[in-house]
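Quick check before the chapter quiz. The format below is the same one you will see on the exam, so make sure you can read both the input and the output lines.
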Amino acid sequence: MAFYFLMHLIFPVIMLSETEIVIRLIIAAGLGMAIGYEREISEKPAGIRTFAIVSIGACLFTIIGILIGETNGGAGIDATRIAAGIITGIGFLGAGALFQSNSRVLGLTTAAGIWSMGAVGLAVGLGYTTAAILATALMYLVLLSGRFYGKQPKIKAEKKEQAG
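Here is the expected output.
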């Protein structure tokens, strides 16, 4: 009993209220929807629903990990395992978005976005909302920049093929 008390003095247990859980899930949904919206208007197969669900799911798994740690006093709970499971699982989901056509890999940006959105959901679940919002804004900017710069190398390669 004394060990348990000392552990709480050294490593205080994070108590999440139901309100905070709801807020974190709503933030995760909103961030996922923001990236999903960009993919939707770019006419990509994974859009608002996919990105929002990935972010919400990662956030919820993270919150569940925190709650399990709270109820067991942190005994035997390794939060890094839960995070690793989330990243691995979402990696498999992203791999499903990839396919090969005419010796070109398609869907790589969508797969990377799905994987990154899992990290955003994980960050929100842990309470690192500022980092999650910044990461989402950066992802959005990168995706937008692809509209202007992403097609340029393909055009140059086609011109070289036509000239040669």
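If your answer matched, good. The radius of gyration is 20 Å.
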